[in-house]
Amino acid sequence: xxxxxxxxxxxxxxxxxxxxAKRLKALEDENAKLKxxxxxQMLDMAAMKELLSKNVWSAPxxxxxxxxxxxxxxxxxxxxxxxxxxxRP
Length: 89
Hints:
The chain is mainly α. The chain is built from four helices and no strands. It has one domain (18-86).
């Protein structure tokens, strides 16, 4: 560990108690988890918007897909790996 890193760490954490440091770590872990969930939801929404902007409902593999909105994810998931969405920018 470099000297600069040590002093930066000392300035940030020296006034904390052990319980405060544990709480901070727990909050950072929870924040990372929530960010990951948000990113997954945003990706799902972007995929759905892209699919809904195209006429995919006439595709043979979606003919039995009538459950809206709860079954939509099950119907769209197989399409995400298809060439329809493969070329994302």
